[in-house]
Specification:
- With 248 residues, the chain is α+β, with helices and mostly antiparallel strands.
- Among the domains are: 10-35 and 177-195, no CATH class; 39-164, EIF_2_alpha (Alpha-Beta Plaits), CATH 3.30.70.
- The chain contains 8 helices and 4 strands, in the order αβαααββαβααα.
- The chain has helices spanning 3-34, 58-78, 83-93, 98-105, 126-147, 177-213, 222-225, 227-242; strands at residues 39-49, 106-110, 116-123, 158-164.
- It has a 4-stranded antiparallel sheet with strand order 2-3-1-4.
- Helix 3 (83-93) crosses helix 4 and helix 3 crosses helix 5 (126-147).
- It is elongated and about 100 Å long.
- The model is unreliable at 54-62 (pLDDT under 50).
Length: 248
Amino acid sequence: MDLIDYVRLLRRRWSWLVIFALIGLAVGIFVGSTSAVSYRATATLFVGNQVTPGTAGQTVAAQSGADFTLARMPSYAELITSPSVADPTLAQLKLKYGLSGFASHVSASVLAQTVLLHVTGSSSTASGAADLANAAATNLASVIENLEKPSNGGPSPVSVVVTSPAVTPSAPASPNKKLLAALGLIVGLILGLLAASLREQAVGDRLAAASHLDPRHDRHDPAVHNPAAQASTTQTVSTSASRPEYQA
């Protein structure tokens, strides 16, 4: 089908598109209204290295420590779902997720080529998401510092600070009701156009089949293809029928 065919199709079957679009819109709104609401909040951690002021080679040590910290950032992010972080967080907030449930509600990511850790918490309430992110971030900071402490009991060369606590989100992260409604409308229009096209094709095939079965469409019958001949034949028959017969 070319563009002209689609224009003709829309003119003949526009009601189909409207009906399918409304159905798709209704489905999208229904899914958005019945889906579970989830809020997300994110806390940011800064992971730095400690260098004793006034020591020889302080600049070299600082650069070496920065490279060390940067290389270990992905490992620090993986600690977010460890029992060392999950257990105190769940106990503090009195949550009953369990370790697997905690992993599905909390995540950590590293901003590329930085020493910034983003800890994100999700919950069915806005305040719950912020509390979960902040508690997990605080516990993760403690775990990282404890892991990096020297075995001789000296101070940890790594310092982790919560630079941006999570704030209570003003709107849920999911479901996105506007997006779901728009997707439902678009899918409905596509299905409506497809259904209208199939209907037009079926009607065309049926008419073509009927024309082949109609004896009046015999190409050898001149009356079918020449209306003037058909009218002349009809007139001749009528005249012959009305002419009186004479006997000798």
